[in-house]
Amino acid sequence: MREIDGKTRVCGLIGNPVEHTLSPVIHNTLAQRMGQDLVYVPFLVEESRVEDAVKGAYALNVLGLNVTVPHKSAVLPWVKEIDPLAEKIGAANTLVRCEDGFRAYNTDMTGLHRAMLSDGIRLEQEKVILLGAGGAARAVAFLCAHTGVEKVYLLNRTVEKAQTVADEVNRSFGRECICSMALDEYDRIPGGGYLAIQCTSVGLHPHVDDVVIADEAFYEKLHSGYDLIYKPWETRFMKLVRENGGQAYNGLKMLCYQGIHAYELWNRVTVSDEDADTVLQKMKEAMGIDG
Ligand code: NAP
To answer: What is the pLDDT of residues 111-140, one digit of tens each?
Structure first.
């Protein structure tokens, strides 16, 4: 256990709930590996206290904060600066101390991009099916447009939300790359060879038998499926992707890399691939996953 003294810097997470977060594993492992005098702690923050939390953390000389559900948009009015990508997405998960306040970033998006690259997925060469239109899906839709994906079919149970996200992204990038649809219209998607990114909360523990689309014919259209969920380790969506010959990935690496990017921004360092592998391994151990 690290000795805490007068020079120890503090980083943390604000959200509600925060009890089950894996973020302390990421940051405390990195601080130990990289020999930095830093501790990372979760802070439970009520929705009505977000302004107090951000301003209070700055007053307490906190080096940086992660922000999780439900505060990712609510923090934005209380920061000094907003990185252009976080501004476009309208949500931030990382606050970095700067002069007179925090600067807000969205490392969920950059984290997913790095996770995909490390799995050999290059978005710019992909045709994508994006399932969901909530906060995570919105960030992924921006990532797809930002990286120059050929085409995205964005499907959501509430089709109006899919339409809103598609309109915002298309307007923001000045091209019609996102096409919105209702979830049950998946059989209208032409051809095959797609990467599907599962951004709904369907299948999340404890509802592990649920899946957003159960029809095997849908999975025949995919070469790969990325589920943002990482608990359970293999979702039913991932099983269906694999059973139909595709590669399937869960969201743990995305979580790992969003944390690594935040750590890099706070400490102005670059985390090596070896240290990233160690962090991922520690996260698996914390989840009780072998191998
Ligand atoms: P959110 O804003 O609440 O959005 C939830 C999405 O799921 C919406 O599109 C919603 O559709 C859809 N949905 C919920 N229940 C459904 C059902 N029964 N049938 C069909 N669609 C349903 O949540 P979020 O913040 O975007 O998070 C989504 C998932 O991503 C969560 O499981 C979260 O844990 C995961 N996530 C992972 C990471 C990571 O680092 N790996 C990061 C962020 C999020 P409607 O619009 O129709 O309600």
So the answer is: 999 999 999 999 988 999 999 999 899 999
Cα separation, 9 vs 21, in Å, equals 20
Residue whose CA lies nearest to ligand 1 atom number 17: 202
Look at ligand 1, atom 7, and give the residue with the nearest C-alpha.
Answer: 200
In a mutational test of the pocket of ligand 1, which residue from 199, 253, 283 has the highest number of ligand atoms less than 8 Å from its CB?
199
pLDDT tens, residue by residue, 9-63:
999 999 999 999 999 999 999 999 999 999 999 999 999 999 999 999 999 999 9
Q: Is 107 close to ligand 1, i.e. is its CB under 6 Å away?
A: no
H/E/C letters for each residue in 216-234? HHHHCCEEEEEECCCCCCC
What is the model's pTM? 0.95
Q: Catalytic annotation on 253?
A: no
